[in-house]
Amino acid sequence: MRNAILALAALALAACSPPALLSSVNRLLPGDNGARRVAEGVTFAPDRGLKLDVWAPRQSGRPLPVVVFLYGGGWVAGSRGGYAFAGSGYAGQGFVTVVPDYRLVPSVRFPAFVEDGALAVKWTRDNIARYGGDPNRIAVAGHSAGAYNAAMLALDPRFLREAGAPAGTIKAAALLSGPYDFYPFTEQRGRDALGAWPRPAETQPINFVTRAAPPMLLATGSADTIVNPRNSRALAAKLSAAGVPVELKVYPGKSHVDLAKSLSRPFRGSTPALADSASFLHRVLGE
């Protein structure tokens, strides 16, 4: 049965099917330590029509660390439901996990999708205690465009400030396969999402590194041809030079998609991205 499910998952990915199908396959396999979706379709930005889901592990009777996971999709695609496998995966590692939607190109451009993420972080700080999470131990995580959004939230304090969240709300970040230092924009998605901003330097996470940045894990695949691994190496070097705790993980031979799909149960062994990021976040946030 498991082999048949894995074959179905492989077929789905080979056919370039959306992550939602991977999430559907993910539900068919046991695991993730009893993680479950405890809230679905919670509105966090009524004026923008934005909602989020909350995933939680088995409760231990004490507040748990929190991850706000931002999905990828080149700023043009993605949904919280499609990335249920990521919510379940991080919840299975002991985090109360929030997976919010954000507005997409072409309906918006930078910085709207980062601002949406900031509102999700504020909602999390204000409300996560009712789901067993600790509002004083919030991290952001993400893959690809979601890793970019998370990096901007962690590094540029104006986004949380304008959303009404206190400085220092984000205590750590675990970022997978993200673009952080990619101007000038050489591909269409970057131009569409960020190219209209009149001050391009303000679109690049690497330009906001200071000693105040939270500890970060940066993971990438050496065979990533969608987001050059140079982005992770450059940001890691800048953080290290500023005295910020940072871990860089480069997985040999792994692609851009490999890191995302390894958050799901069918492909959990394809990279150690989930285990590595969970271990890092537990060290920083506490068990």
Automatic annotation (TrEMBL):
Asked if the keyword Hydrolase belongs to this entry, the reply reads yes
GO MF terms listed in the record are: hydrolase activity
Q: Which PROSITE patterns match?
A: PROKAR_LIPOPROTEIN
Q: Outline the extent of the BD-FAE-like domain.
A: 52-239
Among Pfam families, the record links this protein to: BD-FAE (PF20434)
Q: Which domain of life is it from?
A: Bacteria
Tell me the keywords, alphabetical order. Hydrolase, Signal
Tell me the leader sequence span.
1-22
Protein name (Swiss-Prot/TrEMBL)? Alpha/beta hydrolase
